[in-house]
What we know:
Layout: H1 2-20, H2 27-59, H3 63-78, H4 82-101, H5 108-126
Helix pairs in contact: 1-2, 1-4, 1-5, 2-3, 2-4, 3-4
Amino acid sequence: MVKRKLLTAMVASFLFALLFMMDGFSVNGFLNLFYINIMIASTYGVSTSVFSDWLSNKITDRTYAREIISFIFHCFFGLIFFVFGFLSAILFFIVDRVFIKAKVKIGWMPVIIAFIMVVLAFFLLINR
């Protein structure tokens, strides 16, 4: 589950930055938003998402109700960072559920490769 959540954090952070850069795309603005979001999503977001899913599983056994409860917890924990956190939490939830519904098997290698790509892009673009 943690592997999926880490990869979800990276993908959701990328999509989050793209969505907010639609009006006027700038590389610096995109990277700033992406890296700030990925730092928060990969630490706070992953841990609260695991907790939200665990808690919703404890509250109910019904699948539909469990998804709604988990979504509410994701939104609640995202609201701590106001509007950006709220929207990021919704996007995180959606990407995570897409990975679950698609039954994507995620090993450590895709997570490590995605992380290395994020770090390399950071170092290559910061020296630009």
